[in-house]
Amino acid sequence: MTPRPVIIDTDPGIDDAMAIAVALASPELDVLALTTVHGNHEVDVTTANALRILDLLERADVPVVAGAGGPIGRPSTPPATFVHGDDALGDVGYPPSTRSAVRDVDAATFIVDTVRARPGEVTLVPIGPLTNLALALEIEPRLAQLVDRVVVMGGAARVPGNITPTAEANIWSDPEAAEVVFGAGWPITMIGLDVTHQVTATTAWIDALTGAGTPAARIVVETAPVYLRFHRDTDGLEGIHCHDAAAVAWMLRPDLFTTEALPVVVSTGDGTDGATVVDGAPRGRPLVDVAVGVDADAVLALLDERLRRAV
Ligand SMILES: [Ca+2]
């Protein structure tokens, strides 16, 4: 089996850390790089977190490339410190990395260069706002024909949003970029709240990882309390949604998900700003493989098994 080359575009982020750990523990995937973006915090912080996560996982061989500091068509959204902590990584106090991000290239250019060098091979896995992908498409419009696939964590097709009543956080953080990405006509899968809200790691699931003895499990256990407190306080949930890791799980086991090919339009209207409109109307738009169902228990078992592996 040849591992599938992937670039994870990320704004770490507690659930990003889990997704990155799962990807690096999976022999089916060859993680070429982490590209970073604004979102859960400012891009300098998310870049520092990407480096810290790789240090903790003892995977300093994976390059980190810093990307966009704000959305393409509007001011930045404030950091989601109420979800992920002041440092966006659970305020555990992990030391800063001694490593730096790649200095001579930005994320969008790195994505373009990497995909051009391996036409038809690379899958992009954006698990933050879609700014870097929109910028990459601007640099190289043929990117849509050159990727293997794009697997987006974001959006909400038939369920409410999580940052507004209609909008999911990643899309809401850069709706104009999301509109570009969902309209680009590339093979694309949307892993949205329709499925990620079912992939819920309970406190018992997290506690059971305590004795696993791997760095990946340790990061999940150590960073979870801040995220658990957010859910306990806001919706009474005793657990955390594994949003970003669900996108990686789709890469590993697409058979655990149900998708429907539907056009996705991103609203920028009053009251529905950042909403993904998935009503089946053709609108002359390319189709997106929208995840609408998931075997959540099987996905959680897969995540658990990978977090117990050495990366
Ligand atoms: Ca994220």
TrEMBL record:
GO terms for molecular function: purine nucleosidase activity. The keyword Hydrolase applies. It comes from the Bacteria. One of its GO terms (cellular component) is cytosol. Residues 6-300 form the Inosine/uridine-preferring nucleoside hydrolase domain. Keywords: Glycosidase, Hydrolase. GO terms for biological process: purine nucleoside catabolic process. CDD domains: nuc_hydro_CaPnhB. PANTHER family: INOSINE-URIDINE PREFERRING NUCLEOSIDE HYDROLASE (PTHR12304), URIDINE NUCLEOSIDASE (PTHR12304:SF4). This is Nucleoside hydrolase.
